[in-house]
Write a structure and sequence with these properties.
This protein is of the alpha/beta class. It has 2 domains: about 50 residues; about 180 residues, Ribonuclease H-like superfamily/Ribonuclease H (Nucleotidyltransferase, domain 5), CATH 3.30.420. Helix content is about 45%, strand content about 15%. Strands 2, 4, 5, 6, 7 and 8 form a 6-stranded mixed β-sheet that branches. The protein has a two-stranded antiparallel ribbon with strand order 1-3. Strand 4 and strand 5 form a beta hairpin. The longest helix has 20 residues.
């Protein structure tokens, strides 16, 4: 109990709590008192706060314990990890995982601009968005702490514990079968993915357009011939390095969040969770992602073909 309270106040607190059942928050309201140690953010003076901020910028992947050690060596002030976490939050730093981001050059930007100008007024409800996607569980679990005003880091190294590669496709009123890819993709296996993914849906997809991010196998004659025989038209002017224009990328992000929330602990568990995520994402969410392609096109046009988020 706080030392600033009189004996009378202490007995009153005891009576309110034990005899009358009043909770501690109500007692604190009736009697001017507070718990010790609640003003932790006042431990550092302005110079020390500036030093801490510099450390947080410089060592963005360090744990709070490591930052506390660095602050001790730099200033001679010893504070615990919890206080570091509180300061880090109050200074506007947030935890993120790094993401990989394709680099757009001038040629890519022009292709993206041309594509978006051509389809600025298009309706996307007759387009199939497809892609392959690796899903990985990183054993290192590296988390970057960055200021809210800074962008997420785009380069990282990881140590893969569990890993699957999937192929799938979405459209306004449905989704394909999810295909788990084993081994390397070649001219034959890519067509096999198409067959496995669409075998139950070909009749309803007649007359649709087909989009795929990866040019290596999607542009081969064998795949084009298969799509043409099924009366599906390949959108061959879809620009390279443009995952932001492929609505299925947002589906992958949704699935990744679902998978990570459920903590995959084995290869088999990861595969089960990925399939569950594919089955569970609501179709209205998929429609929202597809409708958003028009918005992204406008952003790309405004940016002259460059990053839609810039």
């Amino acid at each position: 109990m706080s030392s600033h309270l009189s004996v009378r106040d202490r007995w009153r607190i005891i009576s309110l709590n034990f005899d009358q059942g009043v909770n501690v928050h109500e007692i604190a309201r009736r009697i001017p008192c507070k718990r010790n140690g609640r003003d932790r953010l006042r431990i550092l003076n302005n110079n020390q706060v500036n030093t801490l901020r510099q450390l947080l910028y410089q060592y963005s992947t360090d744990t709070s314990s490591s930052i506390a050690d660095r602050l001790l060596r730099r200033t001679g002030l010893g504070i615990n990890s919890r206080t570091i976490r509180n300061y880090r939050s109050s200074l506007g730093f947030r935890p993120v995982h790094a993401r990989s981001q394709p680099l757009i050059n001038a040629k890519h930007a022009q292709e993206r601009l041309t594509f978006c100008l051509s389809y600025a007024a298009a309706h996307w409800d007759n387009v199939i968005f497809s892609d392959e996607k690796p899903v990985e569980v990183d054993i290192s679990g590296v988390v970057y702490w960055i200021s809210a005003t800074r962008s997420r880091p785009t380069h990282f190294q990881n140590q893969i514990q569990f890993h699957v590669v999937i192929f799938g496709a979405i459209w306004f009123d449905g989704r394909s079968n999810l295909v788990f890819i084993h081994g390397r993709t070649n001219t034959t296996t890519y067509v096999g993915y198409l067959q496995a993914a669409f075998r139950s849906y070909l009749r309803q997809l007649s007359g649709y357009y087909f989009i795929h991010d990866r040019p290596t196998w999607a542009h081969i004659v064998l795949a084009h011939d298969w799509l043409r025989r099924k009366r599906i038209r390949y959108l061959d002017n879809f620009p390279a390095v443009s995952p932001d224009l492929n609505a299925i990328e947002s589906v992958w992000s949704w699935m990744n969040q679902y998978t990570q929330r459920n903590y995959p602990n084995s290869q088999q568990h990861l595969e089960i969770l990925v399939q569950q995520a594919w089955n569970m994402i609501p179709q209205n969410v998929i429609r929202g992602y597809i409708n958003n392609v028009s918005v992204i096109c406008q952003q790309i046009i405004s940016n002259g073909g460059w990053d839609s988020m810039g």
